[in-house]
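Posting for a labmate who doesn't have an account.
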Amino acid sequence: MKERFALIISVGILFILVASTWWAADYAQRAVDIDPPSRLTHEPDNWAKTLVLLRTNQQGQVFQRLEGDLMEHFPDDDSYEILKPRAFVLRPQNPLIIATSRTATIYENGDRIVMHGDAVILRMGDQERAPLNFRSDELTMLVKQDITYTDLPATAVSGRSRMSGVGMRYNNASQTLDVQKSTDVDIAAKDSRNNSEPAQKAKP
């Protein structure tokens, strides 16, 4: 009888021990965050110096060249920031575009480039048109569409023509420059041919 009672006591103690251990483990798991979610902050996770990036089309032709002194990648928005960028858009059917600024941010795998600080877009000239100098404090390049725009004050100069305004959009494929709000327009006669609204749109 005594041995049976001792066995029951031992089993009871063992059960209490197992139950308390399970409770303690479950409480600790719920109370302590063992694997907290990673925090995505706008901090670089890798970088490169003195870089040259080339993008090619399906035929292997280079249509975009990007140079810079320093590039950093930010994982929170998958963007790249470049110091002293120099961007070239090379499309056989469109004039060559060269863009420079103090810094630039690259989004969407290079399809959208935002040029910051003394941003200048130079459209090279040809036999029909003088070079176009399009500048603002910030310019956004849509590489696939070959379009550059800004919502800030900007100035565009081509030959003897000059246009200043707030909000400009230059389409390199059609070679047209649209102005949302013009403040100063001086378009030479030869640059405004076939253009009925030179204050709002011009073919520089």
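Reply:
Got it, the structure tokens are right above this. The radius of gyration is 31 Å.
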